[in-house]
Amino acid sequence: MELWKQIQQAGIVGCGGAGFPTHVKYQSQADTLILNGAECEPLLHTDQYLMQHHAREIICAVCAMRDAVQAKTAVIALKHHYAAQIDALQQAIAQANADIHLHLLDSFFPAGDEQTLVFEVTGRVVPPGGLPGLVGCVVSNAATALCVYDAMQNQPFTHKYLTVTGAVRRPTIVRAPIGTPVADCLSCAGGAEPDEFIVLNGGPMMGKRLSQSEAMQSHVTKTMSGLIVLPLSSAIARTENISLESMMNRARSSCIQCSYCTQLCPRHLLGHPLEPHRIMRTLSLYGNNLDAVLDDPAMRNAALCCECGICELFACPMQLQPRRVNRLIKQRLAQQGIRYQRPEQTWQARPERAGRLAPSARVAARAGVAAYYDISIDTLTQAAPHTVTLALRQHVGAPAHPIVSVGDRVHVGQQIAACPSEQLGAHLHASIDGMVASVSQDAITITSEQGGNE
Question: Which pTM value belongs to this model?
Answer without folding.
Answer: 0.94
